[in-house]
Amino acid sequence: MDTIQILRDLMIIIVSAKLFGLIARRLHAPQVAGEIIAGLIIGPTLFDLVEAGDFLSGMAEIGVILLMFSAGLETDIDKLKKSGVKATILACTGVAVPLVFGAILYMSFYGFAAPGSMEFIKALFIGTILTATSVSITVQVLKELGKISTDVGTTIMSAAIIDDVIGIVVLTAVLGLKDPSANLITVVIKTVAFFVLSFVVGIAIFKIMKKVEIKWPHTRRIPILGLALAFAMSYVADKYFGVADITGAYVAGIILSSLDNSEYIDRKMDINSYMIFGPVFFASVGLQTNLKTVDMTILAFSAAFVIVGLLGKVVGCGLVAKLLKYNTSDALKIGVGMMTRGEVALIVAQRGLKAEIIDSRYFTAVILLIILSSILTPIILKAIYASDESKEKQLQ
Description:
Elements: H1 3-26, H2 31-42, H3 54-73, H4 77-82, H5 84-110, H6 118-131, H7 136-145, H8 151-176, H9 184-215, H10 221-241, H11 245-256, H12 262-287, H13 296-323, H14 328-337, H15 343-354, H16 363-395
Helix pairs in contact: 1-2, 1-12, 2-12, 3-11, 3-12, 5-6, 5-8, 5-13, 6-8, 6-15, 7-16, 8-9, 8-14, 9-10, 9-11, 10-11, 10-12, 13-14, 13-16, 14-16, 15-16
């Protein structure tokens, strides 16, 4: 390992990722999209300045663990409890429909496979990528329109939180099927065992951390202990239960999310993530993608993947919202509001690459979905609300 070369590579990654991240934000696109594009430019697709070696892969792994730990810390347990039956149903169908659509899409391109075969697992994994929802852009739009506290806004937020939890469970189950010595029952048992243990241990850890924050409020030892918990849970999940390490990090965040210092912990984690580990992770996605190898089949698949990804959430959430007695306009808002994808979709895709279920060619489809869903969602949402306001004025 050439230390000097690593320093040079980190410099290039950090500067280029932040530069293109800022450009993306100026263009009202997700910052992560800019960081991925930076990876494409400095990687084998264009200039081939940086090689994704073992060290950078390790840093990217830490980056993804920090991202999922932060996602867990930002989970509102009270909202989960109060979300009710409607949000739960929407979340379930918002995961199930894209999962099925994605699997059918893959098999339509590469052939229908028998359940349990590697090709079938690949198809399921493509569907799993589509289950992820990132409503940060939707939330920003709803805030701008003053609609965040409405029934529709609350429903989207609650469904998105539950959607993330279900999506993580689905990811864990599909990854477990990759092990030839495991069957579905074994995967389910090990997954349930992990969550049961996490619940029991989590209560004890929460009580200990509660005492720690009372004795030493807003001190650095609290986020340090939180970070140690994230790494420990990640290790235990992967090593002893065959559960994805990011699931362990996410659960660690949920355990600490109700602490008074949870926002303080999240801020400290964000410094590390924003400064170095986050850019390395997102840039590494670009570094692992070589668009020179993309053929017409992958381009056609990517286009279909984007369409299916967008329609999957609109149908899975919007149509079901209609069945749950929402009016047509509100049902469409919910469906459109849930169709944005972000870093979680990338994390899931990267997990599939690591497990050798899919190859880096499919990152092209995921990147396109993130960019297009992030651009289209605000435009469509604002158009629907504008249409509603126009109709209200005509009735007055």
